[in-house]
Amino acid sequence: MMAEMLSYLDSKSSAWVLEDTGSSSYPDENFAREIMQLFSIGLYKLNIDGTKRLDNSGNPIMSYDNYFIQNFARAWTGFTRQEERSNIEMVYWDDLNRLDPMNLIGK
């Protein structure tokens, strides 16, 4: 399951952790980084010919910074598995419901 591999399954928001445990925490940023870097805009801004855009000092210009990652990670919290059903999951997937969309709860 993608949520397990990209580690946003059961990721909790900072507000939920603070209210629940009284401690500080940050949502897992792995999936946010994967989306930004691999599936969307990439790490660097590009010219029309695909070469990296450079600033006045000749350094590549980043497409995003950690501020964007932190905010995007906040949107990927609260996803859990759906409850198991007494049909195919119990036979093939060790009682884990891998067929239905994930459940979104306020965490």
Which key phrases capture this entry?
single chain; mainly alpha; two-stranded antiparallel ribbon; 2 strands; elongated
Please tell me about this protein's structure.
The structure is a single chain. The chain has helices at 2-5, 14-21, 30-37, 66-75, 88-92; strands at 79-80, 103-104. Helix 3 (30-37) crosses helix 4 (66-75). It has five helices and two strands, in the order H-H-H-H-E-H-E. Strands 1-2 form a two-stranded antiparallel sheet. 7% of the residues are buried. The protein has 107 residues and is mainly alpha-helical. The model has no long low-confidence stretch (mean pLDDT 77). The protein has two domains: 1-27 and 76-107, no CATH class; 29-67, no CATH class. Helices cover 33% and strands 4% of the residues.
